[in-house]
């Protein structure tokens, strides 16, 4: 048995099949199938590794339907690293996927690994919008594609340094991500503005790249490792690395576990956490509104703390915050039926709460909800607007 398969087997053997993870699994709650629960998927993986069942399209279907939201990890008494297990399982079947799926995976992998190439394609988004190219996609994906095209910014260039306003408190380095620098420019610009006003010089290393999460979750672990190495080198002189997307924060924070870059992991800080805990008092324009806070699966801190700085704001936790919204990286494109079903739960929760604005600290969640007409902003963008 290959070394990667042995590692996968060791991870799978940690599961004692107690079933505590099953009720919290979003896909199990929708399908009611044991094969779509964490316990069931682990049993399937062990079956393939032991050659008791084939790694056929049906097996891949159950593996790919997993969101890797890792809700199961939070309740597992044996601390099974289910996310790592799923990444390994997808690596195991990476070469067994249909040729068209492998082709699109390679194309998307090339784009996220080369953010400058992605930026160079941004101007064509306006042409695609004008030509209504989103109508060429299946009906279940048109809303998502339309929002992505509308969010693209052709002028998404960044200076290497943005100096602090007033009394200087220190320097931070900003992690841009890959698609966010083109499709979520408002959040990145807002983060720079708020950090500067709070007294931080912001440095933007040019050699940084994608965090590697998309490659890992697609099963391309070698590509993810290369991206991680580039980021470790790009931020080697930084003492604090700021993230604006919770998904990237988790991926970067696990470089120590996955690649031995423990020193790098200690630098990672979410922008909302940094600003909230070291808030330098400044006058903000009041905002008389109620905001529902959507908590991404990958969120570790509390993004709503910075919203508390805005006078007049009433903050509510969105019901069902323990369940994934269905975005999950590229999941909303590869598994639109399940992604839309999970998003429908969020739509209903928002309608029942009566709020008009939803704050979320993950770029993918925001776009997924915007495609359904939900007014969504990153908390740091909302704070920047009130300065």
Written account of the structure:
With 387 residues, this protein is of the alpha/beta class. Among the domains are: 3-96, Fumarate Reductase Iron-sulfur Protein, Chain B, domain 2; 283-385, Rossmann fold (3-Layer(aba) Sandwich). 51% of the residues lie in helices and 9% in strands. It has helices spanning 3-13, 26-31, 38-49, 57-64, 71-75, 82-92, 99-113, 115-121, 124-130, 139-151, 180-183, 185-197, 213-217, 221-234, 246-253, 255-259, 262-265, 271-277, 304-307, 331-334, 336-353, 363-370, 379-385; strands at residues 161-162, 170-174, 200-203, 241-243, 268-270, 289-294, 313-317, 357-360, 376-377. It has a five-stranded mixed beta sheet. Strands 7-6-8-9 form a four-stranded parallel beta sheet. Strand 6 (289-294), helix 19 (304-307) and strand 7 form a beta-alpha-beta unit. 44% of the residues are buried. The model has no long low-confidence stretch (mean pLDDT 88).
Q: What's the helix and strand layout?
A:
Elements: H1 3-13, H2 26-31, H3 38-49, H4 57-64, H5 71-75, H6 82-92, H7 99-113, H8 115-121, H9 124-130, H10 139-151, E1 161-162, E2 170-174, H11 180-183, H12 185-197, E3 200-203, H13 213-217, H14 221-234, E4 241-243, H15 246-253, H16 255-259, H17 262-265, E5 268-270, H18 271-277, E6 289-294, H19 304-307, E7 313-317, H20 331-334, H21 336-353, E8 357-360, H22 363-370, E9 376-377, H23 379-385
Number of helices: 23
Major beta sheet summary: 5 strands, mixed
The N- and C-terminal alpha carbons lie at a distance of 59 Å
Question: Percentage of helical residues?
Answer: 40-55%
* Sequence of strands across the biggest β-sheet: 1-3-2-4-5
Indicate the overall shape: globular
